[in-house]
Amino acid sequence: MAKITILGGGNWGTTLAILLNSNGHQVSLWEFRPEAAERLIREHENKEFLPGIPIPSEINISSDLPSLIRETEILLFVVPSHTLREVARQVARNPLPNTLIVSAVKGIEQKTLLRMSQIIKEERPDSKDRIVVLSGPNIAYEISREMPATTVVSSQNEESAKRIQSVFMNKRFRVYTNSDIIGVELGGALKNIIVIAAGICDGLGYGANTKGALLTRGLAEITRLGIAIGANPLTFAGLSGMGDLITTCFSPHSRNRYVGEQLGKGKKLDEILSSMVMVAEGINTTKAAYELAKKYSVEMPITEQVHQVLFENKEPKDAVSDLMLREPKAEIVL
Predict the structure, then answer these.
(1) Residue 318 contacts by C-beta under 8 Å, 6 or more apart in sequence?
(2) pLDDT: is 96 or 184 the higher one?
(3) Residues with catalytic function
(4) From CA 267, how far away is CA 270, in angstroms rounded?
(5) Edge-to-edge strands of the sheet including 3-7?
(6) Which tens digit of pLDDT belongs to each residue from 65-85?
(7) Which residue, 246, 253, 256, 240, is CA-closest to 218?
(8) Fewest Cβ atoms closer than 10 Å to its Cβ: which of 21, 48, 270, 322?
(9) How far is CA 280 from the centre of its chain?
């Protein structure tokens, strides 16, 4: 049994808390809003983010960060990507010399263009070999209802990855390891851009041909950028790449797909976001990926068009037309 603290009381953080509790671990859940933490304790249910799923009474819920992470063996970050640095900075004020740190956050920091594990490493330089990334086709709605799923864990330290693999794995949640931490993180983050584009196609009423082409070419440009940054191209054919991409592009529970669908139906971004409770990570990731593509001189036409729709008021139909009418090319360039 491990002592585990999860930072983030959203749908994924709550789901992981329930899963790890079912595996027999001592689990604590940090919700930064005191009133929300009290509500979770009182109702034994996260009605805001994960309605209908009971939270076991054994899970310790609190908004007191220092007390929860004291002597914890495994610390999970499950917060929105734009808040990760600040939360990591708060954690860094506490001595955690032997704690394994897991990032279940998918995104790229806009100002620095850093991956999530790099942010944790900056804020806590002594944790390099104890950082593990968890990423995969993981829809919280399904996993919280005990539907079979898989994920990938990656670390620069093989033993750290194997430890987290054993902690998370059970008969409904299969965990694989992958040594390519760059590729695992980039696949989980960048796929959300393509998911927004897939949602736009749904909103415009396009069919399977369109979405199949979009996923294939989207994976191609994700892989191009990943290779430029130092990832193993095979990683993008795995669970944290293609697996996550396919799952999220078709899931009715994807926030990013929902944003794209509403854009395709003619709604404006501000209007869509004002109606949402949870964060659609793909919006900020689109900004960061657009800058990364320029930095590494990588062609990412789908990302460019999504960027124009999100931030330059381009009509979704025009974006699709511009993608279709690009200069003819070979599919595979060796």
Answers:
(1) none
(2) 184
(3) 191
(4) 9
(5) 60-62, 26-30, 3-7, 74-77, 100-103, 131-135, 149-155, 173-177
(6) 999 999 999 999 999 999 999
(7) 246
(8) 270
(9) 10
